[in-house]
Amino acid sequence: MEHGERVDVRKEPAPRKTAGDGSEPVRQQHCAPYSPRTTPSATGADTDLRTDPMSSLWLGFDTESDVTQWAYEPGLPVSAAVLEESLAALVRLTEILRAHQVKATFFLVGRLLEVAGDAYRVLLQGEGHDLECHTYSHHPIHAGHPLSESPAEAEKSIRRGLDLMEQWFGERPLGLCAPGGSPTGLRRQPEILRVIWEAGLRFVKSDNLASSETPMLPSRIHPYAYAEEGYPDLWRLPGVGWHCTLTLPRAPGDWTPRPVVPGGPPFPHAPRTPEDHLAWVRQELDYVRAHGCQFSPSWHPWSLYRFDPSLTVVDFLLTYAREHKMPVKTYRQVYEELAGGPEPVGGPGRLG
Ligand SMILES: [Zn+2]
Q: Which CATH number applies to 49-339: 3.30.360.10, 3.40.1010.10, 3.20.20.150, 3.20.20.370?
């Protein structure tokens, strides 16, 4: 289980700045615009949005190996079996992306690049995908998690991860996926935000975990900037929906939350078959489309692959997006929309 915390999001205050008019609460019944180009219906009521581009799919994959290897420590071996699985999953996933002619974001763990960077490069470079950072060690970086690193340790892990990304892919990422996630992201944690900002990062997928009932945030959560902490140009992008590692067999006594879809009853149990998984994703997507939300699942190639080596759910997701005219975006694209245009890689930052 990647997420160790169980926190009730209902107790969390809403951050101030969103991608809307700057005053909307992040959590609300219906989705607000995340970009100036979107125009929600006046009522937010269920409508047929088959030709409305208001909803989109933000396609990103946390690219690691079996998370029972929670931390990737230098010097400790990376199991050949899980590495092979991680790479086999990427082979299948990139085939599907190619067939659908879409680009995705891959947030890569640095330790895996250290041991198999060439294999990841062969699979991912030259395909036009968005390649971003998932730290070096995969330790959580937010305060309050028992396994979290100190800001100083996190800085080393982030910078080492960025160095490895640059070494293997020739470009320094602008985006970070914070391992483990947190229901409130990195709000009111200026020290780690400073580390992220000074490392040249401009967007971070840091809000993932929801509650004891469901592992991820519901899809009505909005992006926002860390303005309150002094970083108005550092954007937080959410991960939503069901967490794919929970489709794998659970040990007795393990946390076994049921998938919860906003606006509908929870599924009686975690997906047990690919068909179960598709049913959940379809319900979530129907909700997203009806309410003008954005769908940004935090999926992991290795666990999707272990559950179903065909990765049927990814093919289903992209087929659904095409049929319903939902734009498919990388996280970098979303960031650029929010920030008002591409920012030069490595360019100087602005402190608010
Ligand atoms: Zn991860």
A: 3.20.20.370
